[in-house]
Each structure stands twice: as C-alpha cells, then as structure tokens.
Design a protein that fits this description.
Number of strands: 21
Radius of gyration: 24 Å
Shape: globular
Strand content: 25-35%
Largest sheet: 6 strands, mixed
Order of helices and strands: EEEHEEEHHHEHEHEEHHEEEEEEEEEEEH
Distance between the termini: 41 Å
Strand order of the largest sheet: 6-7-8-3-9-10
Low-confidence stretches: 356-363
Helix content: 10-25%
Amino acid sequence: MTDRFVVFDGVTKTFAGGVHAVRDLNLDIARGEFVTFLGPSGSGKTTSLMMLAGFETPSAGSILLDGRPLDRLPPYHRGIGMVFQSYALFPHMTVAENIAFPLTVRRRAKAEIEDAVKQALDLVQLSAMGGRRPAQLSGGQQQRVALARALVFKPSLVLMDEPLGALDRQLRERMQIEIKHIHARLGVTLVYVTHDQGEALTMSDRIAVFRDGGLQQVGTPGEVYERPLTSFVAQFVGESNQFGGTLGDAAGMVELDGGWRMPATLAHSIAAGARTTVSIRPERIRISRDDGAPATVQELIYHGDHMRVVMRLESGHAVFAKLLTGAVPDWVRHGAQVRVSWDGRDARALDALPNHRTEEKLR
C-alpha cells in the first residue's frame, strides 16, 4: 500500500488489572478507503477506534494520521468526524442546528455555515427536515442527521462505531447502501466498527477481523470470505462446515476424525501429521443421488430465499448445505438417503480448533 493515511504501529492497550484490550496492532489504511473493524464483543475493535479518535490512549505503539503522530493531540484537534450508535444529537436544537454545530464551534462565517448545512441535508436526503427537532424524526432519520453532522466540516477521516445497531433489519440494510454510496461520492476515508458480518461484507473495501485484541486477517470481503486464513475467520465470517483431522501430506490430503479422507487447500503452511480443521462453506456443498459420500437428511429449515439442509454422513460427521428454495429437488426430504460432495478447492485446511464438532455450528 503506497498511501499510508492511517497507521497503527505496534499499538497495544492495557487496562487496569492487566487486561489487554489490543495487542500489537499493525495496520495501514489508505486515503479514501472504507475499512471495517469486525469482531465479537471484547475483540478490541472498538478500543482501536477509540484510540484513533483520541478517547483512549495507547499503552504502547503509535498512531499516525497522514504522517502526523496523534499521541499528544486531543480529540477536538484531530479533525475527525465521528458517528455513534446512540446518535448523540442535541434534543433542544433543530436538525439544522445539530448539523451546523461542528462549524459553529469552529467559528465559520454564517453564510458558509448555511451553505454547508444545506449541502449536508441534501447529501443525506433530509432537505425538508432542517427545522425539526430530533424527537420528531425516525431512528433512520436521526442516524442520517448524525452522519451529516460528521461530514459537514469535510473531515478527511470519519469513524463510525456500530452506527446502525439500533435500527431494524430493513432500515439497517437500506442505510448500509446509503452510507456506501455517500462514501463513494465523497471519497472520504472511513473506518467502521461492527460485529455484523453481513454489514462488513456489504460495505467494506477491506475488512480487519479482530479476536482477543489481535488481528486474525485483513483483506477484501471476497478474500476474507472465500479464503479465510484461520478457523475463527471461517466460522465468524459467514457460516462453514468444519471437520477436525490430520494432514496426511503436503499435497493437502486430510485424514478426518472418524476415518474419512478428503482433499483440501492449505490456507498456510501445515506440516504433514499436524492437526488441522477443514472448513467448507455450505453453499459449496453438492447434494446428488449417485455422486459423493453417503448421507442421511436430518432436517430441512426454511429461510425464505434458501433452504438449509442438515445431513449426517456415514462417518458420523454432520454437514449442512444451503440451496436456493426453488432449487431443492423433491427427493431431498427428511430421512432421505443422498450423497454429498464438493470440490477440494473449496475445502480450506486451517489451524486446529479445540472442538471440531460441526454439530456445534448447526445449533
């Protein structure tokens, strides 16, 4: 990456009691990039964002913005736009006054403020709402106001901390696309925090997957989903069938627990004889009458646009597939004897998990 606009250089954050929230974080973000910090609660993603914003101080390492160290720079001097899940709007101010606030405290001219607020309202499609109070708006409209306020002073960097978490599913999905379009239109650098894998896959240029204070993988949505580097990433980003086994040879043949052999693609260097977890996405599973390993259909679960077909192989392994609802053959029913197969290129040999039981993923 040639343009290192945001740089986390060996950043560590330790709280009282020796709790390591972030461990040796090294990450570069390019100018104009949309990067999502993705991970479960307590993974370090929000703490990393708060250190970039200036609300937390690194215990070690440094953070640079456009080549400038941020270590001693207070939040209000960093010129960063911020959007929170709670919106944080002033209830006694109108929508226009809320949006104007960052410009007012910067003592911009009245005419400049009025013009900038109008542009911001147009940007978030709230042109007719400037005179209303936040309490008169829906949740989605309030989030648009918060976004407009973060953008109105034209920051080079905008941070968003779970901004859509309080919205219902349909509205959240619409706002995802709106934020993505606004980012494309403005070209601002955007760092977004979420625990929602679908949100990260939909919106991001790159995803940084956090776990236990460290980075598991950084890559495009396609790279993270199609080519996970660890069992955690394969399990957390999307769904996967996971089987424990032992690597038989460097070519990728795995001896699965239960006496079943299968080819797999090595995600990284694994020594022959080492334990591994093989991960296969459910949409890569093929079901037929005459090709593959024998299996019994145990359950069909309707999800609207697709069906989840849960099966058990003769080896005892559970496996599930996703099929488009209209593409499920009538012979795939509860108790049916079928055959299951997949392309070895779709099976990823990853690090070994303590518990390899696919059944845990099916619950």
